[in-house]
Design goal:
Layout: E1 18-28, E2 37-47, E3 52-56, H1 63-71, E4 78-85, E5 88-91, E6 102-105, H2 117-127, H3 132-145, H4 161-173, E7 179-183, H5 191-208, E8 211-216, H6 219-225, E9 228-233, E10 236-241, H7 243-248, H8 253-258, E11 263-273, E12 276-281, E13 284-290, E14 301-306, E15 324-334, E16 338-345, E17 348-355, E18 366-370, E19 376-379
Parallel strand pairs: 3-8, 3-9, 6-7, 7-8, 13-19
Antiparallel strand pairs: 1-2, 1-4, 4-5, 9-10, 11-12, 11-14, 12-13, 14-19, 15-16, 15-18, 16-17
Helix pairs in contact: 2-3, 2-4, 3-4, 4-5
Length: about 375
């Protein structure tokens, strides 16, 4: 949904803080003789000052447990957490939440229903004994930052879900935290509100300069908002990078599939040189770039990851003939702006997205698919 660009209002400025996470581990004891469960497994990260950093992964991967250890709600089994700013480095590993100067936004909003919006936002300042005049000014600044100043006198029950989440964000910002922590803040909203609030939350976080750690399982949320993303799987961080870098250069089949639709075509390496890795598959021979850190040898089994939108129905300029697959359409879904096709290539079902199609391709039509070398990522097969 398009938004009107305008100068952001003056926002409460927090101190830019670098968050250090060093081999942080959390193990929960087993119940009824069961083995202990490792929720977070020796995770190390450095989150830069002023960065909007996402922890992304499926349910049960450990991302919320990791966030709650940074917040101080859960003590780690091992490792440490540090906050570094102009005053130096603080080890906050076992500090209680109220001693860390962090602001937390929950998916449930957690607003006091009997208090006005203004009183909800002011609550943290009252607990910190901030004087009346300063408190009033800071509440006004926080509400202006989330564009909720005109609703200051209303009760939370008189607000929409999106408005309540803005108030929860203002309440976290008003204390001027060193680090802002968001735990799936948009998960209770409908699709339209989620889209609207993505850009708003990013705008506010970047305008304030507060270091922000944001947990979500929503890939689109992370891709559209984050400066960097850490993808988690079974308690470990499996890859860290920019949204574009992770999407275009996944390091594993798990990352490739989790971040969006992709074709994972099995094959065998037949050549490795400075032009890339050449792979013979059942659908034809393709050449691509190897995943970072992977080592490829001739004869090794691999997977060629190709996004559906990377295919063209004609040769892209300068494309290699080895990156052309030929087959027939077996299924088609016309969605207006895009057509989603399934093309049978030598018995392998290849998914293709055609942007701005003139019409749906008829089934059984012959089709030639071409893909650029840089759009083919060669991955090692998953272990286990």
């Amino acid at each position: 949904m398009a938004t009107i660009a305008r100068t952001p209002p003056t926002a409460p400025a927090g101190v830019s803080t670098t968050v250090g996470i060093e081999r942080l581990t959390k193990t929960f004891p087993g119940v009824g003789g069961a083995a202990a469960a490792v929720a977070v497994d020796a995770v190390s990260l450095e989150i830069g000052a002023g960065e909007l950093f996402f922890l992304l992964g499926p349910s049960g991967c450990g991302k919320t447990t990791l966030l709650r250890m940074v917040a101080g709600f859960i003590d780690p089994t091992g490792g440490r957490v540090t906050f570094a700013d102009g005053a130096g480095v603080r080890d906050v590993t076992y500090l209680p939440p109220n001693k860390r100067n962090t602001g937390m936004v929950f998916q449930s909003y957690a607003l006091w229903p009997h208090m006005s919006v203004e009183a909800n936002v002011a609550f943290g300042l009252e607990m910190r004994k901030v004087g009346g005049a300063e408190r009033k000014a800071r509440v006004a600044e926080a509400l202006a930052a989330v564009r909720m100043e005109e609703y200051a006198a209303r009760k939370p029950t008189q607000l929409s879900g999106g408005q309540q989440q803005r108030v929860a964000l203002a309440r976290a910002l008003v204390i001027r935290p060193s680090v802002l922590l968001l735990d799936e803040p948009l998960s209770n909203l409908d699709a339209k509100l989620r889209l609207e609030l993505r850009s708003e939350i990013r705008r506010v976080c970047k305008a304030t300069g507060i270091t922000t750690v944001y947990v979500t399982h929503d890939q689109k949320e992370a891709l559209s908002m984050a400066d960097r993303v850490a993808i988690m799987q079974r308690g470990k961080v499996v890859q860290v990078g920019t949204p574009e870098g992770l999407y275009r250069r996944p390091g594993s089949a798990f990352v490739a599939e989790f971040l969006g639709e992709t074709n994972l075509i099995p094959g065998t390496v037949v050549g490795v040189d400075d032009r890339g890795v050449t792979v013979r598959t059942g659908a034809g021979t393709v050449r691509g770039t190897g995943a970072a850190g992977a080592s490829f040898v001739v004869g090794a089994p691999v997977l060629a990851s190709i996004r559906p939108e990377a295919f063209g129905t004609r040769h892209p300029q300068g494309a290699d003939t080895e990156n052309t697959l030929r087959g027939r359409v077996t299924d088609t879904v016309y969605l207006g702006e895009v057509a989603q096709l399934v093309v049978d290539v030598e018995g392998i079902a290849v998914r293709v997205s055609v942007l701005n199609p003139a019409a749906a391709r008829r089934e059984d039509a012959a089709m030639e698919l071409a893909v650029n070398v840089e759009d083919v990522v060669i991955l090692m097969p998953e272990r286990g």
